[in-house]
Amino acid sequence: MAAVEPGKLRNVAVVGHRGTGKTSLVEAMLFQAGAINRLGTVEQGTTTSDWDEDEQRRQMSLASSLCHCEWQGRKINLIDNPGDAGFSGDTIAALRVVEGALITVSAVMGVEVQTSRVWGRSTELELPRVIFVNMLDRERADFFRALDQLRAMLSERCVAVHLPIGSEHELTGIVDVLHMCAYTSPDGQREEKAGEIPAEMADQVAEYREKLLDSVVETDEALMERYLEGEELGAEEVAHALKDAVTRGELFPVACGVATKNLGTTALLDLVVEGIPSPAKRPPAIAVDGGGTAAFVFKTVADPFAGRINLFRVLSGTLSSDSTIVNTRSHAKERVGQLLELQGKEHEQAKEFGPGDIGAVAKLKETTTGDLLLDAERDVEPPKLDFPEPVMSFAVTPKAKGDEEKVATSLRRLAEEDPTLVLRRDPQTGEQLLSGMSQIHVEVAVDRLHGRFGVDVELHEPRVPYLETIRKESRARHRYKKQTGGRGQFGDCEIVLEPLPEREGYEFVDEIVGGVIQQGFRPAVDKGIQEAMQHGELAGAPVQGVRVRLVDGQQHSVDSSEMAFKIAGSMAFKDAYQKADPVLLEPIMEVEISVPDDAVGAVNGDLNSRRGRLQGMEPHGGMTAIKAEVPMAEILTYSQALTSLTGGRGDYHMHFLRYEEVPSHIAQKVIADSKQELEEAKV
Ligand SMILES: Nc1nc2c(ncn2[C@@H]2O[C@H](COP(=O)(O)OP(=O)(O)O)[C@@H](O)[C@H]2O)c(=O)[nH]1
Ligand SMILES: [Mg+2]
Question: How far is ligand 2, taken at its centre, from the CA of residue 394, in Å?
Answer without folding.
Answer: 26
